[in-house]
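Lab notebook: predicted structure, single chain.

Context: the supervisor wants predicted structures on file for every construct in the current expression panel, including those that have not yet been purified. This is the next one on the list. No modifications to the sequence; it matches the entry in the shared construct table.
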Amino acid sequence: ALDSGQIASCGLDVYEEEPKVHPGLIANPKVMLLPHMGTWTVETQTEMELATIANVRSALETGKLQTQVAEQRDMPEE
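Prediction complete. Output recorded below exactly as produced.
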């Protein structure tokens, strides 16, 4: 779509096989590539810190996490 002009340009901060970026995207002057910065605000980092503290507290007090990495949900408990 970029090469045909259907899309004039694009900006990306998430890539299919991170951290690798497709060479075609790197070479295309119509593409602006940025690091993934969605959490680079004071407000978001504060909320992430509070969520982490709550998660650790829950693990220590109840033995269960409030949030869990999706890939670890089916892992057997030790």
